[in-house]
Amino acid sequence: MFFDDRGYDDSVGGYVLGLVVPVKKGNEIIGILKCNLNILGNITQLITGTGNNLIGNSKLTRSGGRVVFEDGFEPLSTQIHRNIFEQLKNNDQGTIIIDDSKDKYLVGFSQIKLTKGERGYDFGGTFESIDHKKGNNGESWYVLCYRQMSVIQAPFIESIKLIIFISFVIIIILMLASYLFGKKITKPLMMLHEATKQIGTGNFEYEIPEQQNDEFGELALSFNIMSSHLKETTTTINTLNNEIDRRAIVEKELNDSERRYRSLIEDQIDLVCRITPDGKFVFVNDMYCQFFNKSKKELIGSKWRSLPVDDDIGIIKEKLSQLSFTNRIVIIENRVISGKGSIHWMQFINHGFFDAQENLLEIQSSGRDITERKLTEEKLKMAEANLKKTFDISPSIICKASLDTGCFTEVSPIVTKILGFSVAEFTSRPLIKFIHPDDRQKTIDEILKQQQGKDVTYFENRYLCKDGFYKWIAWQATPPDKKGMVTAVGSDITERKQAEEEKFQLEAQYQQAQKMESIGILAGGIAHELNTPIQYIGDNTNFLKEAFQDMSECLQVFLEFFESGKKNKINTSILEQVQSAIETADIEYIQDEIPSAIEQTLEGVKRVQKIVNAMKNFAHPGKNVHVQTNLNECIQDTVTISKSEWKYVAEMVLDLDSNLPMVNCDPGELNQVLLNLIVNASHAISANIGNDESNKGKIRITTKALKKWVEIMVSDTGTGIPDEIQSKIFNPFFTTKEIGKGTGQGLAITHSIVVDRHKGQIDVAASKNGGAVFIIKLPLNV
Question: Which residues pair with 459 in a beta bridge?
Fold first, then answer.
């Protein structure tokens, strides 16, 4: 006997399941008994009748995927989800989550054993008859139950929300209890704190009210007794003051020791040594030994007098004798003999260390090789001499030219020596043919001025030589006569032009060398300026690290509390752990202090960034290119990096025009100009106030816009500049400073940068408040 799953039958309008019993005679089938059943109504009653006991909706399906029954659909008209179909192929029963386009479903399925052919019944068939649709070809049946995941999860989510709400209510209650309990303890502690402050200031009459009969009351009684005893023993205050003075001296000596060590690091350039007042080495670094080709054993204990050139020993002694308690740094430039026997120029920054009685204990010296700078200075002197000599002895071309024809009519024979052309060749062609193409328009403009009757006294252009090269000729011309003839004198300035170019290059090299030298001198002060913000950045970072650890431990306890709440296992032990974690972490203190620590750290980072950016802008080598520049920013950068030069002797006042227009200039060169003026101002103020560091001077920098100019004014309250030398201060190698402190090049280069390279003006005058004032004017359109 077997069941024939025939499918949907149109004649009966329902799903047909046939029961077939074969009739056999012996082993031969001679007929069958068959009964067709319309089971659609029975299945509907079965599924819907048991719906109250099922979770969600149900389907009846074949293992091939067609749905036998689904509420609201014709049998065998729909297919199950492809993921469920894959599961039916491999499993008799199970569950699967289906991700529909609108929602997720949890689906459970189980095979109907009878349709699998168990218990001796066959199920299905191998063909489809004419009057039946979609017959079963050996497929078994499955029951599917499905429901939306959101509906299943909803009770769990509501439970979790309730647990979290209860947890936060408990936390708030615990925090409130902690606050009230802490407030009760804080009041007597504040009374004890106030009593400590009063006793610390010497007010032994102060007593703590004895209001409690607990440990705080006993502590207050003990404090009052102690205050009474201190009052009786006030005669020991002098002894205590002496001990404080002794400790202050010890602390100062420790601070001096720390400054010596820090200075060793900050002032280090190349060669570092420490010497005693009588000139013996007590320390040399490896670079010092390497430079002089001596071991530390050979140098330590010996005297420095064996290393410099003999002619410079007297100058060094004189300079070192200027070290004092108020003048602790002396810069000396002198020659030394290296370990290879060659002579080098060195710059030594000598830092004196003194005890409380102002006795010199030790001299720390940091030196670096400035031979290249000295050679550059010497080359500059030679270039100046060669330029003057070349200009003085240059031969001249004397000629006459007609403004009407544009040709030379007469030329002196020296033209052949200078340009290579004969007189005949030179007068046979228009003069414009001999002029360099780039200079022709300029020359034509000068000729037109002469034709208009304007005086043209001097101009320069390049003339063609017979060998194809060009030479620079400087012309001095007379106004044209009645016949339109002009007399001119031309001087070959080719060598002078080359010398000027060489001078320009040397000045640029010297300027960069001087800039790097300034950076080296300022490095110690800049490092000190960086040290302060970096120190409290480190302190705040350590505090944040500890606070984060405390909060992490507290958070871990809360997470454990949350997990216990989810499992409904909150007990007294867990609550005690939460309370202990809150008290240990001191959450209120952390909440108050973390924002302040972060704010201080960010402020420190801004200060470091400002100093570093200023240093980067100043140290960057110039490209000799003029760009639109904010002069106020240049001034602020230069003031920042030079702070160590002026902050001990002067107050810096900046009065900068916020509407100052941009100026077309070389910012690197302008930074050098400003640094020279600020350093000179600080030196002048230092010389004026002497050793009185409490009476600081003032440096004022002002900017403002004029019609066609931008004006920068730098004034100080220093020693001023006498009237008789004001006209000389911009001359090369002119200086009012003593030997070793000034090269006479700073203001000369400043003048060259402002006047020659930027077509500006620079003047000096006496300040109204004493001292000097430098006024720089730069054109808005160059």
Answer: 475
b or e along 238-272 (b: 16 or more beta carbons within 10 Å of the residue's beta carbon)? eeeeeeeeeeeeeeeeeeeeeeeeebbebbbbbbb
Interatomic CA distance for residues 252 and 355, integer angstroms: 9
Residues 684/731, Cβ–Cβ less than 8 Å: no
Chain centroid to CA 297: how far?
Answer: 44
Pairing of strands 663-665, 627-629: antiparallel
By three-state DSSP, how is residue 704 classified?
strand
The CA–CA distances, whole Å, from 250 to 244, 257, 261 equal 10, 11, 17
Please report, in angstroms and rounded to a whole number, the separation of the first and last CA atoms in the chain: 114
Across-strand partners of 411? 399
Assess whether pLDDT exceeds 50 at residue 339: yes
> Model confidence over 213-266: pLDDT tens digits?
666 666 667 767 766 766 666 555 556 667 677 777 877 777 776 666 656 544
Report the relative pairing of strands 485-492 and 470-477 from DSSP bridges: antiparallel
Q: What is the rounded CA–CA span in Å between residue 391 and residue 657?
A: 44
Q: Please report where in the chains the tokens 């060659």 appear, as a residue.
A: 342
Q: Are 292 and 338 in contact (CB under 8 A)?
A: yes
pLDDT digits (tens, 9 = 90+) for 606-618: 766 766 666 666 6
Cα dist. 687→319, 326, 720 in Å?
16, 12, 10
Q: Full-prediction pTM beyond 0.90?
A: no
Cα 436 to Cα 476: distance, rounded to the nearest angstrom:
18
Instruction: Work out the angle between the directed axes of helices 667-689 and 494-566 (0-180°, nearest 10).
Output: 90
- Nearest 5°: phi and psi at 507? -65, -40
How are beta strands 104-111 and 141-148 bridged, if at all? antiparallel
Q: What is the distance, to the nearest Å, from the Cα of residue 449 to the centroid of all Cα atoms in its chain?
A: 57
